[in-house]
Amino acid sequence: MSADDPFARLPKAAAFTVTSTTVTDGAPWPPEQYSGAFGVPGGKDISPQLSWHGAPEGTRSYAVTVHDPDAPTGSGFWHWAVADIPAAVTELPEGAGDDTGSGLPAGAFQLPNDARAARFIGAAPPAGHGPHRYFVVVHALDTESIGVEADATPAVLGFTMAGHILGRAVLTATAETPA
Question: What pTM did the predictor assign?
Answer without folding.
Answer: 0.96
